[in-house]
Amino acid sequence: DIQMTQSPSSLSASVGDRVTITCRASQSISSYLNWYQQKPGKAPKLLIYAASSLQSGVPSRFSGSGSGTDFTLTISSLQPEDFATYYCQQSYSTWTTFGPGTKVDIK
Amino acid sequence: QVQLQESGPGLVKPSETLSLTCTVSGGSISSYYWSWIRQPPGKGLEWIGYIYYSGSTNYNPSLKSRVTISVDTSKNQFSLKLSSVTAADTAVYYCAKTTVTTDWYFDLWGRGTLVTVSS
Fold first, then answer.
1. pLDDT per residue as tens digits for the range A9-27
2. Is A6 touching B (CB cutoff 8 A)?
3. Do residues B6 and B20 touch, judged by C-beta distance below 8 A?
4. Number of H helices, E strands in chain A
5. Which residue in chain A is spatially nearest to B109 when comparing CA positions?
6. Which of B45, B38, B111 has the alpha carbon at shortest distance from A36?
7. Do A87 and B111 count as a contact with CB atoms less than 8 A apart?
8. A44 inside 8 A of chain B by CB
């Protein structure tokens, strides 16, 4: 299995802050890395696919980068609606796994 | 636009089989892949498996012995059966449209349905 880790597990930030979340794979996964946002009581929403491609309809303040084992999700200017939990997902292997999540809450 | 809706019993007894259906509306189930994903209360996401509209499947090895995913194109539905359930199978179960190219990801989700395993 490819294990995914995320850091930090949680963070507190203010509206307007630049936020960076890191995802690390236990082996190289090329660029087969996707990011999701989940708000309480809601289904996850795809933000970024293939490490850096912005899903249609997702605001441009979200961006993704990385390849190999290390990836980042950046929110350039945090908005009130961005407070949520963020998950990475690797799709390199035949079966996929998610990271444990990073919760972003209000400072 | 395409929408997904999970349905099925919210309570299942231990050792029995969990059965859920996902109905796809606003579009055809054909030509796409469709997944089941679950999330235990307060925990992270676990992919269960996917099915292509033609019927080919791919399952999470940790659940493979207990999982069957099937598709009914005439009803625009796909289904999940998970046998021999225990309390560890208590979770919100999501169905999701899955884009499979060189990468694969879940680009449209249902709202989810909570299934509790308890006697």
1. 999 999 999 999 999 999 9
2. no
3. yes
4. 0, 11
5. A43
6. B45
7. no
8. yes
